Every structure is written in C-alpha cells, then in structure tokens.
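Researcher: I'd like a structural prediction for the single chain below. Treat it as a standalone chain; there are no partners to consider.
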Amino acid sequence: MDSWTWAVRLFKTRSAAAAACRGGHVRVNGVAAKPAQPVRPGDEVRVRAGGVERIVIVERVITKRVGPPIAAQCLIDRSPPPPPREILVAMPRRDRGSGRPTKRERRETDRLLGSAASPNILPVVGAEQPPSRAGRSDSG
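Model: Treating it as a single chain, here is the predicted structure.
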C-alpha cells in the first residue's frame, strides 16, 4: 500500500505514505490500510493528506515511482472538487499553536457556519454537585 501510494505520487516520500497508513489516513475499500497491505486493480483507496481527501480507484499496480503522465494512467481520480475560493477566503484562519479561539473568533465562526455549528449548552441551575472534600476532617 505505501509503495503504491508513493509510486503514483499521492505522497512525496514512501516514509510519509507509511506514516499515513499507520495513522489511519489511508483506507482501502472502507477499511483502514496497513503499509504492507497489497492493492489490486479495482480497489478504492481514500487518502487524507494535507487536509484534503483524495479518492482514487486502482487501475494498475506499480511498485516503482514513475513520472506524472504514467502515474495518471495507474489510477482513476474520483476526488470531489475543491471548495470554491470564496468559501476558503471567508473562513477565519488561526495560526497553529495560538491557543483557544477568543470569544470574538468563536462568534465569527458561528456567524459564518450558522447557529447549528455551535449549540449553546448552559449549565442546569440547581444541579446537585458532588460533596467537597474541603473543610472535612477524617481524623474522627
């Protein structure tokens, strides 16, 4: 599996392909694939890499990395089209590792995605709390 996905240029390196298989980002016919799993013509391979899901059908099995024109002949690409650029630009972006979103950023995201994206969950007033251990002495 890892050598085929690398050979048809779904991954830049074979080690990246193997890591994606181990991480569960590669599925064959709906089942998570291991790096050593063999592929056969007609298998549906779903690869999630770089935030994009690619859906391909195995047309021909190869083990050596080939050029892009030959790699295109080894698979049938059934991937959905990318989202329109307007939607990608409208989505708020945060730098990786910048912590939790602020209240303003959450409101902007809710406004963009609609109210169903973030249901308001309020605590129940008068809900029974477990007894606190503070102020309790066990030396009785």
